[in-house]
Amino acid sequence: MIIWKSSLLAGITGVVLWVNAACLAPSLHAGVDAPVHLRCEGQEGPLGIYPRSPRLSWQLADTGSDVRQSAYQVVVAYSRENLDKGHFWWDSGKVISDQSVGVVYGGPEPEARQLYFWKVRVWDRSGNVSDWSEVATWETGLLGRGDWSARWITGHERDTAQSMPAVYYRTQFNIPPAGQEGDKVESARLYVSARGVFEGWINGQRVGEDYFAPGWTDYNIRNQYLTYDVTDALRKGENVLGFIVGDGWHNGYLMWGKHHRKNWYGEDTALLAQLVIRYQDGNEHIVATDENWLNRTGPIVSSDFYDGETYDARLELGNWSEPGYDAEGWWPCRLLQAPQVPMEAKRFGTVRQHETLKPVAVTRGEKGEWIYDFGQNMVGWVKLRVSGEEGDSVILRFAETLHPDGSLYTDNLRKAKVTDTYHFARAGTVEWEPHFTFHGFRYASVWAAHEPESVEAVVMHTQLQPAGSIETSNPLVNRLQQNIVWSLRSNFLEIPTDCPQRDERLGWTGDAQVFIRTAIYNRDVKNFFEKWLTDLRDAQGKDGQFPNIAPRLNQKSSAAGWGDAGVICPWAIYQFYGDRRVLEENYEAMKAWVDFQERSSDNLIRPESGFGDWLALDKEDSRGPGDTATPRALVATAFFAHAADLVARTAEVLENERDKQHYSDLHERVRTAFQKEFISQGGRVSGDTQTAYVLALGFGLVPERLRETASGYLVDDIRARDWHLSTGFIGTGLLMPVLNEIGRNDVAYRLLLQETYPGWLYSVRQGATTMWERWNSYSHENGFARGGMNSFNHYAYGAVGQWLYAVVGGISPLDPGFKSILIRPVPGGDLTWAKTHYDCPYGRIETDWKVEGDTFTLKAIVPPNTSAVVELPDGRRETVGSGVHNYTCTLPAASRG
Ligand code: RAM
Question: PANTHER family attached here (predicted)?
Fold first, then answer.
């Protein structure tokens, strides 16, 4: 069936030709396809999952029109056969529900190290039942301290004031164990954690492809561990299990200025590992770290994230992780009395090597060094093949950009030495890359006796599934989008960081909260953020203050817009992924933050402190990045009101009526106090800056009757600056969404497409390949911004990405998790087309629009088990179910380029 809703009144603006292709022959659909894309805790067949009652999700495979689930049944068993035979460990029964995302496992308490098999079937709205899905699995890890027999071990006493050599550990064991009759190994799991960063080795083979595992937490509060299936790496007879542990975040340098130092979490790196071998006869054999393991140092003479790595091949240890090795010179380990803290299975992808980049240009520096340009600012390291003589060294340095004379620009690295060194043991050619460091760079210089045979840049970061893409008719906007994604990739390395190159690289909370929605549109960051929110909670003060940096180092107080990440991030995760557990987990902490603000305010007005609108450009005689024209008390009170509002809404989701009342009431009172203090009778907001208006409008603090006037002042200021923005970290993220809200996407497009300073395309015009910390980090005319705080890879201003997806692409959630979707693309500027997709929990949403003359056409794809409200530029609206939907309309004069 095709529905043509073509107007008879041709020629009148707004005529819509409705072609609902999704309705094509729905009657052919007798039944519903088996569900696909089964996920447990957002992962496919995870090993070692984190919570005791995992969340299960699936997608409906059916792409027909208006496909919806009316009921589901999940069954779980201990084996595939039991699942087939109907011997279930848990059977949800037929549950009348359209929920297919975040269904909580409701069976008996899971046991440690247990593999579960599960499948699901669904019913559609006509009562047709699907086939069972394919079988999926999850395996529990070590659930409590009692499941660990391993002890924390460490190497020799070290002079930890220096960057120290990485420690090598080894143990050997027999399969089957001595004195026992042989039986076949059925499975082997290795559970590993470190205070430091580890690489595992079994019988000469590297375990997994992870880097910098187990990642970063406040190690004295919580540790992560990884689980590996190492069944295939074991052999009959003698086996060797080995590890290398480097300083990483535990012992390496962290912080800048006078706080720049090592050993934030303790003096020694340490290792905790437990290998559980299951034999087919049911016997189990555990190999676990203890004082009998051996250790020594080797060729990794020093390794540090800020300073780089030094490798001395003369100290190599040969086949140290293989059987038959003579372990002379190795020493028994020491047991470390590490704090007894929760051990949690890692819940998101580790750092991996992704693509490699070949140089696009090579030049010679003044001292004869080779300088390579990889064409893209990025994070990772350089892998090279080079020859040398005995005793020769190769030295690599890194930079994000070059001085005009072609030398590396390293002023912005501050105290970070960012230098890798390789010492040759003997004459020959080697291929080398470091182990325990990373650099933020586009350029690398190599000092060596001979020109390297090959040099490539290895891109490294946390593994995150791509979630969306957007492409438009404007190549500069497309480059901006790529720059946003490159900065996301560069700064999502175990935690969300501010920058990847200088002596900082910290979990700055403000940066994370302004960027989170953009991050979600581009990558699946659910587990990544859920884990980082545990870091944020671990770092929360007893008084309720969330820190400016998580994991916390030494700061005590919190700034407005930074500490608020503890409320804004859980809410954003809930809105986009529709899973209320993130709200449950963070609820008490969110409340404590708001309560703290209530207690420490003066008649509900926050003190004049914090970072204000960091790096804004609205004060002529600014004395520094925090000295801007928007009053800090205004910024802070606006965020206080916003946080109280989000906590009230969270209480509503969690069905806590009393809290809902309390926080809605608090929100109302802060709102009134804000109006009295900061909004004039005539609708002027104190400071009269773009950010002041954006905060007041964006957080709903302007009285209804003054909204239009205040919106006018915002636009006036942008116009007075000849269509330029003046916002800093806080204002920039909200500026475009607010312009959308007040119906001024025409102004938003002017800002987006502005090519002169300050604006997004200015940096693109200056050759940026990532987002910059400052609007003018570099310009062709004036060179580099002064001072060391000048990162070329800082994602905060990339927060415009959220508006690109929601307004240019027209995709945003109406209901949490995109159960209902708003499809509302707004064409503007000189854009003639945009193609966008976003993989929401239910499947792929797509929009593809074109403007030809005054005709706007849109193709939208809505995934199964959702509905969408489609709104066209002429104001027409309709609600549709899943399927492909095509629309045509005449563009109203106002939205023509
Ligand atoms: C800088 C960081 C970060 C910002 C803080 C206030 O040092 O790089 O981006 O959030 O300051």
Answer: ALPHA-RHAMNOSIDASE (EUROFUNG), ALPHA-RHAMNOSIDASE (EUROFUNG)-RELATED
Question: Helix axis angle, 690-698 relative to 707-720, nearest 10°?
Answer: 150
Q: Which of 408, 407, 202 is nearest to 287 (CA)?
A: 202
Question: Do 145-347 and 352-462 show the same overall fold?
Answer: yes
Atom of ligand 1 nearest to the CA of 499: 8
Parts of the chain with a pLDDT under 70 = 1-30, 158-163, 895-897
CA dihedral 469, 475, 479, 481 (to 10 degrees): -30
Give, using CA atoms, the residue closest to atom 3 of ligand 1. Answer: 498
CATH number 2.60.120.260 given to 352-462: yes
Ligand 1 atom closest to the Cα of residue 509 is: 10
d(CA 572, CA 65): 29
Helices and strands, counts by H and E, the chain: 15, 48
Question: Under DSSP, is residue 578 helix (H, G, I), strand (E, B) or coil?
Answer: coil
What does residue 664 show for φ and ψ, rounded to 5 degrees?
-65, -40
Do 851 and 832 form a contact (C-beta atoms < 8 A)?
yes
Cβ atoms of 503 and 306 closer than 8 Å: yes
Which amino acid would we find at residue 96? I
Asked about 186 being catalytic, the answer comes back as: no
Pocket of ligand 1 (CB under 6 A): 498-499, 504, 508, 510-511, 611, 614, 794
Rounded Cα distance between 102 and 56, Å, is 5
Which helix (H) or strand (E) covers residue 485, if one does? Answer: helix 475-491
Distance 891 CA to ligand 1 centre (A): 43
Domain 468-808 has CATH 3.90.1170.50: no
Tokens encoding 637:
């009170």
3-state secondary structure of 653: helix
Q: What is the pLDDT of residue 690?
A: 98
Task: Domain 8-140: give its CATH code.
Answer: 2.60.40.10
Distances (CA, A) of 543 to 115, 149, 534, 539, 591: 42, 37, 17, 11, 11
Q: CA dist 459 to 413, 730, 893, Å?
A: 19, 30, 46
The token duo for 74 is: 């999940």
Spacing, Cα 382 to ligand 1 middle (Å): 27
- Burial zone of 535 (CB within 10 Å; 0-12 exposed, 13-18 middle, 19+ buried): buried
Cα distance between residue 24 and residue 883, in whole Å:
10
Domain ranges of the chain: 8-140, 145-347, 352-462, 468-808, 817-895
| Mutational test site, ligand 1, from 259, 497, 511, 514, max ligand atoms within 8 Å of CB | 511
User: Coil, strand, or helix at residue 658?
Assistant: helix
Count CB atoms within 10 A of the CB of residue 266: 18
| One-letter amino acid of 100 | S
Nearest CA to ligand 1 atom 2: 498
Is-above-0.85 flag for pTM? yes
Which of 139, 199, 456, 773 is flagged as catalytic?
773
Provide the pLDDT for residue 668.
98
Q: Which pLDDT does position 895 carry in this prediction?
A: 66
Q: Which amino acid is at 814?
A: L
For this structure, is 773 an active site residue?
yes
Cα angle: 48, vertex 50, 56; to 5 degrees: 90
Report how far apart, in Å, the C-alpha atoms of 593 and of each of 536, 568, 654, 668, 839 are.
12, 12, 18, 17, 33
Which ligand 1 atom sits closest to the C-alpha of 796?
9
Which CATH architecture does the domain made up of 817-895 adopt?
Answer: Sandwich (2.60)
**Topology of domain 145-347, CATH:** Jelly Rolls (2.60.120)
pLDDT (0 to 100) of residue 57: 98
The length of the chain is 897
Distance 508 CA to ligand 1 centre (A): 7
What is the C-alpha radius of gyration for the chain, rounded to an integer number of angstroms? Answer: 29
pLDDT, tens only, 76-116: 999 999 999 999 999 999 999 999 999 999 999 989 999 99
Residues 6+ apart with CB under 8 A from 585: 530, 533, 534, 570
Distance CA 368, CA 361 (A): 16
Angle at 413 between CA 411 and CA 414, to 5 degrees: 80
